[in-house]
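tool_call predict_complex ligand=cytidine-5'-monophosphate
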Amino acid sequence: MDSRIIVSLDFATAAAAAGLVRQLGAEATFYKVGLQLLTAAGPSVVRELVAGGKRVFLDLKLLEIPSSVAAAVTAAGQVGASMVTVHASGGSAVLRSAVEAARRFPELKVLALTVITSMDDEDLREVGVGSTVAEQVLRLARLAAAAGCNGVVASPREARLLREMLPPGMVIVTPGIQLAGDSEKSDHARFTTAAQAIDAGATHVVVGRPIARAPNPADAFAAMRAQLSALR
Ligand code: C5P
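tool_result ok
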């Protein structure tokens, strides 16, 4: 088992998600539920994964006023999520209210989303941010650490800098992962292999299409796991 790989359940129905979970079997223990599946299928998807012994990264990407963020984090804790995401760009008050709400749930980690991996420097400029992606990621990660968050979400490209900068216990989750040898360009402006991301300092990787759309998802998962165990 390797809980460093979080498999993203980006599906339109609970049945499709359950199909992938079944295919991957006991070896895959950590799943991401995002806005699509949560909206389509409801929170029972999370409860069922947790009841089946899986851990759930509930990717709510919260950006709201502090009291609403706190209420949503509480709801995430109540359905049994292990990780929940909040946009760091919401600022310290939002991050602190998320951390405060999560205290009731010892298993629940609050992760601050820095800059989504599809954005580049030009996209940041468009929304009024003059910094580069790397500068912005580091700025927001510092804010998240100071607010007491358990970790951050960033692209693998920033993982090494983040590892050097953040306190040792902090979680670094990176999406933007491709299978080794897969040169096909996805919509990630910043991507790498799982092994490169972990080697650079990520504690977990989020992987969706490279596993879900592989001819044999269980084989793709096993190959990725083998690459990670070779790192140890
Ligand atoms: O690309 P892949 O299917 O592996 O994406 C898995 C997850 O990574 C998505 O559910 C999404 O939340 C996240 N992602 C991201 N930035 C992108 C593409 C995907 O953060 N550009």
